[in-house]
Design goal:
- The complex is a heterodimer of chains A (143) and B (484).
- Chain A has two domains: 84 residues; 36 residues, no CATH class.
- Helices cover 48% and strands 14% of the residues of chain A.
- Chain A has four helices and three strands, in the order E-H-E-E-H-H-H.
- Chain A starts with a strand and ends in a 6-residue tail after the last helix.
- About 3% of the residues of chain A have low confidence.
- The longest helix of chain B is centred in the middle third of the chain and has 20 residues.
- The two termini of chain B are 40 Å apart.
- Classes of the chains: A alpha+beta (143), B alpha/beta (484).
- The interface between A and B is medium-sized, with 31 and 35 residues.
Chain lengths: 143, 484
């Protein structure tokens, strides 16, 4: 069985791949014939399987679509593969185990303020350690 | 630094498709798959599928919509599925002897008789093999002892185990040891030594007694009886290991489906369940070695195998529904990639295949082959797949012309049919099987036995995934695999 295919409608690559896909049960010969591509099938078990022409025409359409799909996407596809080859999963950040809630934060600020005011009042500093020299003894006398 | 190319007209990124069960299956290299009706496929492939619908969202989640690509997720999926190619050889198969006391109908190992001479690995060769295996940059390596019957070379097996464990301590690598044995030469002392050294045990079990013994002829008596006895022993040791200082792995078994198995899937599954096994591997014959010579009497067509497989798998699913814990390993390995974008460790289904980069086979005489099947071809007198010897350095073997050629020929990007196949993201070709079956390492996929078998298998599994109940069981198998 020979099917003539218009190379203006299907590229040579498309014709070749479509023919190859059906080469399991058939011997396939491709030849140029008056500006067309003659695709000749002969069944390996003798004869030609029923429905082969319909199958081949469907393969041609599928291959044409694949060819367009690969051509339009090859740049993006290989960029994604390169990205995957170099991909290193982002390390998950360790959780902050000692983080404070807003309430705890507020409570802590209050405690700090309380301690600072107590220091100012000298409640917790009977020996005046936190006071400067001038605060404790006044200005130095001139010699 | 490479910049992301600008998005062009088409809204669909690269994908693959296949007509399946009256609709379309679409897949991509980044772990996505989706089932589409004919009308949805027409709209989608023409870039006219309306955003926002259920189908659109499912496609977007799978990486099938160009302006909704999640590059981190997709890159991570691709990387996880191909992780094995970045770390060096993990599996090292030591053929300790070619002698065996069985004469199995399908034996791929190309064995010799029990009393044959000069077919045992010597301890110096075994040590060099261990040293070579530890040169792999991989942090975790597995040494699998095979044959012939490895127990027939017991002293060398014992010495190699001790030496390998010492090397493990010295290098800090994680070492897994495994033994494939027919158990005919097993005794209590050997078994205890193996378990104390954390060697996992695997045997062959082809089904009920009559079927097993018909496939696996044993000069010393009843092969099935020996297998059953020691499976029981190792199962019992596994179940009573509490308090021991070493781990005892659950024993496993391999099934080789021969012509005799056809039509007996349920019996085979029942045999496995009855022996306390939780996994069964419905493994087809490979047309290489001894099996190739006797293909007419033991082989079958891909369609015959698929009929057997479907019957057995449906029966396993029924058993699961009834609460029996058993899963089929071939399905698990393929589904790991399909459902989880995870490498299953099945070296024949990698791209490139596992030859050299995933496994090395060390023959009894110190020759090193790209895989065990390649070693069998070598035994037949054709050393086309010999990558070196134990005297070579790992880096020389991994960069040898043989390794490079096998990698190139098993790269699906360069296989004209595979590159366009919807199952490409999950599949792999075997240059050794191609060479044996079609006299070309590249093979010719449209007429390839293995391709027809695997295509049928994928069709069947994807069909099952469309059924919610079956899918739930299959997903549980893969999830269970992650924790084992």
């Amino acid at each position: 069985m020979t099917i003539l295919v218009d190379p203006k409608k299907y590229s040579l690559q498309t014709i070749r791949y479509a023919a190859y896909a059906l080469s399991g049960d058939n011997h396939v010969l491709l030849a140029s014939q008056k500006g067309r591509i003659a695709v000749s099938f002969s069944g390996k078990a003798g004869g030609v399987p029923a429905g082969l022409k319909k199958l081949f025409l469907r393969e041609l359409e599928d291959e044409k679509f694949r060819e367009r799909l690969f051509a339009e996407n090859s740049e993006l596809h290989y960029w994604m593969i390169k990205r995957a080859i170099n991909y290193v999963p982002a390390e998950s950040k360790p959780k902050e185990e000692f983080g404070l809630t807003p309430e705890q934060e507020k409570e802590l600020e209050q405690l700090i303020a309380q301690v600072e005011s107590e220091i100012k009042l000298g409640k917790d500093d009977p020996k005046g350690i936190t006071k400067t020299w001038e605060q404790k003894y006044g200005k130095k006398a001139r010699r | 630094m490479a910049r992301k190319p600008a998005v062009k007209k088409a809204e669909t990124p690269e994908f693959r498709f296949r007509r399946l069960d009256g609709g379309f299956l679409v897949t991509n290299d980044f772990g996505g798959h989706a089932f589409l009706s004919n009308s949805d496929f027409s709209r989608y492939s023409a870039g006219r599928l309306a955003p926002g619908g259920k189908v659109y969202d499912a496609l977007a989640a799978g990486g099938f919509v160009k302006d909704r690509l999640n590059f981190d997720n997709l890159s991570g999926n691709w990387r996880a599925r191909n992780e094995s190619v970045f770390h060096g050889t993990g599996l090292h198969i030591f053929v300790l002897t070619l002698r065996c006391n069985h004469k199995c109908a399908y034996c791929q190992s190309s064995v010799a008789g029990e009393k044959a001479k000069n077919l045992d690995m010597s301890l110096p060769v075994a040590k060099k093999s261990v040293d070579l295996a530890f040169q792999s940059p991989r942090n975790a390596i597995t040494i699998e002892f095979q044959g012939g019957e490895p127990l027939a070379n017991w002293d060398v097996l014992r010495g190699t185990i001790k030496y390998a464990r010492l090397r493990e301590k010295k290098t800090g690598k994680k070492l897994t040891l495994a033994l494939v044995s027919n158990f005919s030469l097993m005794d209590e002392a050997k078994a205890s030594f193996l378990l104390e050294n954390e060697v996992s045990i695997c045997t062959s079990l082809d089904g009920p007694e009559a079927l097993h013994n018909a496939n696996r002829t044993y000069a010393g008596g009843n092969s099935h009886k020996q297998t059953a006895k020691w499976l029981k022993y190792f199962n019992a040791r596994h179940d009573s290991q509490y308090g021991l200082k070493y781990r005892i792995f659950k024993p496993s078994a391999l099934l080789t489906v021969s012509r005799r198995s056809l039509g007996r899937g349920k019996e085979v599954v029942d045999e496995y369940i009855g022996r306390g096994l939780e996994e069964i591997f419905l493994r087809p014959l490979a047309p290489i070695g001894y099996a190739k010579k006797h293909w007419d009497s033991i082989g079958y067509t891909p369609e015959e195998f698929l009929k057997f497989y479907k019957e057995a798998l449906r029966y396993i699913l029924l058993k699961n529904k009834a609460g029996v814990k058993i899963r089929e390993k071939f399905a698990v390995m393929l589904l790991s990639k399909i459902l989880k974008s995870r490498d299953s460790g099945y070296l024949d289904m990698r791209c490139p295949c596992g030859a050299s980069v995933g496994q090395l086979a060390y023959n009894y005489n110190g020759d090193v082959y790209t895989c065990d099947e390649a070693r069998m071809v070598g035994w037949g007198g054709d050393d086309i797949f010999k990558a070196g010897t134990v005297n070579d350095k790992y880096e020389d073997i991994i960069s040898s012309p043989v390794t490079k050629t096998v990698c190139a020929s098993s790269n699906l990007e360069s296989q004209p049919l595979c590159h366009r196949c919807a199952y490409k993201p999950y599949c792999g070709v075997c240059p050794v099987v191609n060479y044996e079956a079609q006299r070309s390492i590249w093979g010719q996929m449209p007429a390839n036995y293995r391709c027809r078998l695997l295509t049928g298998l994928f069709d069947f599994l994807f069909g099952l995934l469309k059924d919610a109940k079956s899918r739930a069981i299959l997903e549980s198998w893969v999830d269970a695999g992650a924790s084992r």
